[in-house]
Design goal:
Elements: E1 3-6, E2 17-26, E3 29-38, E4 41-47, E5 50-57, H1 62-72, E6 82-88, E7 93-98, E8 110-111, E9 119-120, H2 136-148, H3 151-156, E10 160-166, E11 169-176, H4 179-193, E12 201-204, H5 210-218, E13 223-226, H6 232-241, E14 244-250, E15 253-258
Helix pairs in contact: 1-4, 4-5, 5-6
Length: 271
């Protein structure tokens, strides 16, 4: 089992929000009051003493964030590939030593879109082979349950929430200023807890872009659901990878952009 250590400071969940002063305008008048806003931290990940990437993130569950990122980018295939991992909050550094001492981080990377900023090294994914099917009703119910778990969002706003779901339940939930980070945190927690991600639903409040879909494919997740719209590239990729991509999931409505048969859509309506 990998030796994981997480120190205080930026890695401390108590620093997830900060109180700032603001001026509110309501009912025709101004009122000065304090308000909670999400904290933002930089975390630089080193692999075998070589700098890999710096991510902007919400400073909590950083061990899972690092593990999930390394797995999503194909740098590790599992916990056995990691000898030690130390997250130092005061220095905003994650030091990872791999079982392969000769490994060197790749030079080329792609900057991710959206808030939280970051980079990915994987630009292609493998087909998700699965017989998994669900229903629009179950999918919408899970999205409602996800909204009920958005604790940090209700406190201060400005963050995304994602969840891995199965058998009608939310299995792992993560919140972060970066939508990509939420998926990495979920992946990392599943790795650490030996929880399978295959044949599950992945729910998110964020826009689904190509990078988000590649992370889902790495999890072997056949259904990805968002309350927002996906990008055109994500739709094309989802069709190629066998993933049902669902957007605008709220209330009693949703839109399926690829493989609607996974949600029970009749054959004559399948794209």
């Amino acid at each position: 089992m990998v030796n994981m250590q997480e120190s205080a400071g930026v890695a401390d969940a108590g620093g997830v929000t900060a109180e700032v002063g603001c001026a509110r305008f309501s009912g025709g008048r101004w009122v000065r009051s304090p308000v909670q806003v999400p904290s933002e931290a930089e975390l630089t990940i080193y692999v075998n003493q070589r700098e890999l990437v710096t991510v902007l993130c919400t400073p909590t569950r950083l061990n899972y964030l690092v593990l999930g990122f390394l797995y999503a980018e194909g740098i590790i295939a599992g916990l056995d590939d990691v000898v030690t991992m130390r997250v130092c909050g005061d220095e905003a550094v994650a030091d990872v030593r791999l079982a392969n001492p000769a490994y060197e981080p790749p030079v080329l990377r792609t900057l991710t879109s959206g808030c939280g900023g970051g980079a990915v090294f994987q630009t292609t994914g493998e087909m998700v082979e699965s017989d998994f099917v669900t229903t629009p009703g179950e999918t919408l119910l899970l999205m409602k349950r996800l909204q009920a778990e958005m604790d940090l969002y209700r406190t201060c706003g400005g963050v995304h929430t994602s969840a891995l779901a199965g058998a009608g339940h939310l299995l792992v939930v993560a919140e972060d200023i970066g939508r990509h980070n939420t998926l990495d945190k979920i992946q990392g927690e599943c790795l650490a807890g030996e929880l399978p991600t295959r044949d599950r639903l992945l729910l998110t409040t964020g826009r689904v872009s190509k990078e988000m879909l590649l992370k889902a494919a790495r999890m072997r997740v056949p259904v990805v659901v968002s309350r927002h719209s996906p990008t055109g590239t994500a739709v094309e990729l989802a069709r190629d990878l066998g993933i049902a991509l669902v957007g605008h999931a709220a209330g009693d409505r949703l839109t399926v952009y690829s493989h609607p048969e996974r949600l029970g859509c009749p054959a004559d309506r399948v794209l």
